[in-house]
Amino acid sequence: MLIGGKVRELETSLEAIKREVKEEIGWDNLEYHFLGLSEEFIIENNQDVQFINTMYKAIYNDEIKEEEFYDLEGDWAIYKWININDLDNYLLHPKEIKQMMINKNEIFHLINKVD
Known about the structure:
Layout: H1 13-25, E1 30-44, E2 47-60, E3 68-70, E4 78-80, H2 97-102, E5 108-113
Parallel strand pairs: 1-5
Antiparallel strand pairs: 1-2, 3-4
């Protein structure tokens, strides 16, 4: 699971991800880089729903003190550090997340439709 959440009224997507990271894991010392947008079209409760996700890569420039740590808002989520080369061993959404993380200058616009 990756950290994320909803944008509040009059909040930019960058302000939102900074707030969500602070709320969920308590960190505010990250460097953020815009990765792109992901549009998802799903069916939920027999209705067509569209999600537009703004994605950022966050770079942590400090010493890693713990390999795994809990979400501060509850113990239902456990985060852990993994090597970027091992991302293929995990089920991440969107599935193109590894490609997005390793490309330095490319901005992505992903469209995922469920038929």
